[in-house]
Amino acid sequence: MSLYFLLTLTASATSIKLTQWLVSAVEHKILASTVGLLNTILIADYDFDDYFWNH
Q1: How far apart are CA 16 and CA 24, in angstroms?
Q2: pLDDT in tens for each of the 55 residues of the chain?
Q3: Residue 26 gets which letter from DSSP?
Q4: Interatomic CA distance for residues 1 and 11, integer angstroms
Q5: What is the predicted pLDDT for the residue at 1?
Q6: How far apart are alpha carbons 48 and 41 in whole angstroms?
Q7: What share of the chain is helix, strand, coil (3-state, %, to 5)?
């Protein structure tokens, strides 16, 4: 149990630090367009999977 907690804590801290680095290192206009594109792809993929598996 404590191993999972330590792994979760490490992953959370690393994710936060990587997000902070990404926001400070990448130009905001590029970051916003990339996040928007990824969001569109994920939504389209979710809708496709939902339709495919439920019909």
Answers
A1: 12
A2: 688 899 999 999 999 898 888 889 889 888 889 989 999 988 887 766 666 666 5
A3: S
A4: 16
A5: 66
A6: 10
A7: 95, 0, 5
Structure tokens at 29: 């206009």
- What the block records as the tokens of 55 is 């019909």
The rounded distance, in Å, linking the Cα atoms of 17 and 11 is 10
Distance CA 5, CA 21 (A): 24
- Residues 43, 23: Cα–Cα separation, whole Å: 23
How far does Cα 47 stand from its chain's mean position?
18
Predicted pLDDT of residue 51: 65
